[in-house]
Amino acid sequence: MLCTGRLGGFGARAVALRPGRAGRGSLGAGIRARRVSTSWSPVGAAFNVKPQGSRWDLFGERRGLFGVPELSAPEGFHIAQEKALKKTELLVERACSTPPGPQTVLIFDELSDSLCRVADLADFVKIAHPEPAFREAAEEACRSIGTMVEKLNTNVELYQSLQKLLTDKKLVDSLDPETRRVAELFMFDFEISGIHLDKEKRKRAVDLNVKILDLSSTFLMGTNFPNKIEKHLLPEHIHRNFISAGDHIIIDGLHAEAPDDLVREAAYKIFLYPNAGQLKCLEELLSSRDLLAKLVGYSTFSHRALQGTIAKNPVMLNLFYRTLKDFEMIREMKMKLNPRNSEVMPWDPPYYSGVIRAERYNIEPSLYCPFFSLGACMEGLNILLNRLLGISLYAEQPAKGEVWSEDVRKLAVVHESEGLLGYIYCDFFQRADKPHQDCHFTIRGGRLKEDGDYQLPVVVLMLNLPRSSKSSPTLLTPGMMENLFHEMGHAMHSMLGRTRYQHVTGTRCPTDFAEVPSILMEYFANDYRVVNQFARHYQTGQPLPKNMVSRLCESKKVCAAADMQLQVFYATLDQIYHGKHPLRNSTTDILKETQEKFYGLPYVPNTAWQLRFSHLVGYGAKYYSYLMSRAVACMVWKECFLQDPFNRAAGERYRREMLAHGGGREPMLMVEGMLQKCPSVDDFVSALISDLDLDFETFLMDSE
After folding, report:
1. Tens digit of each residue's pLDDT (9 = 90 or more) over 44-102
2. What is the rounded distance in angstroms from the CA atom of residue 539 to the CA atom of residue 327?
3. What are the φ and ψ backbone dihedral angles of 482, each rounded to 5 degrees?
4. Which domains does the chain have, with CATH numbers?
5. In the beta sheet, which residues pair with residue 228?
6. Considering just the CA atoms, what is the radius of gyration of the chain in Å?
7. The 3-state secondary structure of 589-636, one letter per residue
8. Which of 263, 434, 573, 589 yields a CA-CA distance of 20 to 30 A from 58?
9. Where in the sequence numbering do the catalytic residues fall?
């Protein structure tokens, strides 16, 4: 998952879900390669040992988070923010006084970069830093920069400086394709912010954007807020499954994997019980988005949000495949284990599909974990990336104050001929108050600087893995291993996108394209030829048997249709919420109708799952992107890597056609370049359906 950047225009575009070739593909002309550091160490070993205490040395100079000097203390965010805002003023003056030409786009991009370097970093710190003072300071910086971004997007003089460039046909024709696209993206941000409106309406657009920012933040916090119930209202024998607080039981999640049906039912009904404040917040958020879309000339928020994506227009997915068969399979298993009540309810599929998989294929996670130590998995990634793309990962010791927790590891990403490409900070381990989500954050985007140096990208990968013990290193379940590969796909997108402009760097691309590299990595994680390179028992060194990998891959097809239908339901609900307003019913009534029509399981009275749907913030009108990206990734895998997952020529083509452009090229052109054809909607649907069936070629190979 990509963390969502909430800034439009001069902030991060689309989702923190946008590479290019500075000359068209690698480091590009004029960018100097970085030399290799002698302080780097092998990546596998670095993750199977505890961090050295020296990084917490109490003496010596403290550098600040990510090496930013101001951020050695929370107050530094205010300093960094003020510096960025002052620089913004100077750049705005410069943009408005510079004759139209390529230099105009460079100034706009520098403006975007100066704001993003504070906002992107703050977006991460506000949710991940263990110290409340840092989180609060980062939250304030996000708000301050976000407000400035919205003002810039409605600055008429700034808009006119770009308009002069784009309305001069001779000048436009002289621009290279990447520069022209970046100029058009900046213009698009102006237009969707209502630059064409009169002064009063422009102010209204700014106010609405700020309101949406605040409502989004409030709603997001509310999606994780626990509910409580008096103890006497729950059967005593299930109390131990939940947190106890005096006379109350605290329910902080769905407990979807709990074996006891009653525990899952109670958690579902209590955790999803409607909260009036959260409901009002969602209604205001959807209404404000609709008002903003109409104000700037779109019929719905969906039409506004999908400009420039693969889909281009609002998407309704009528995709049904084998779902009834899956639910019947779940019902039979439930009857077998609980004969008194075999009706399949919404809290049942995650648990019973797991039971069916375990019974049919004997894939108990504890059998696999010893083969997937974190160090082994990191070495596996290193091997794959090296053979496919010529990239190596090296552990580097961070300076004091550079990281926010002692177990954060810093990786240098190094190309065999181009040198240092960037840095990945790995925040992999569980800790108190850390969000329970796996995602990728852009901290600093790459761009070609005026002096010819390349501003190296910096990202964070955040996971929630168990810590090592005295007797063993951190051991991953197959699902954790797949998530690790997924997030590294995002990181490689960031590292290999050598765009000239920060505004379209790495994952700053349309949402329905940004998940393609991460989902593609899941296919590598599930291929025995890849897994065989690194899966070794941490004690004996024994390789993971081939039949265990085959069983694991086959088991993932069990109830996969029901899982996909659930995603179709979520995507459809998202589209309806962001479609025509006023909504024909309450958000809860719409949930009920959509769930029963597109998923098939009954709505449970007095529940409001939509109030826990956190993706409505970052993926508003774009939740379909997961399905679209999976379809594209499936086609790329089968066309280019199924025969040989280590095919270097295919890897280089993948970098050249897909990773290298970020948001600097139309997403469909990148897909066409990789597949050597233009896929249709039917091709995408066929790819999704084929993904549910056992891959015959892979099955034959794994069964030999």
Report:
1. 888 877 765 444 444 556 689 999 999 999 999 999 999 999 999 999 999 999 999 99
2. 41
3. -65, -40
4. 68-194 (1.20.1050.40), 368-562+624-701 (1.10.1370.40)
5. 250
6. 25
7. HHHHHHHHHHCCCCCCCCCCHHHHCCHHHHCCCCCCHHHHHHHHHHHH
8. 434
9. 487
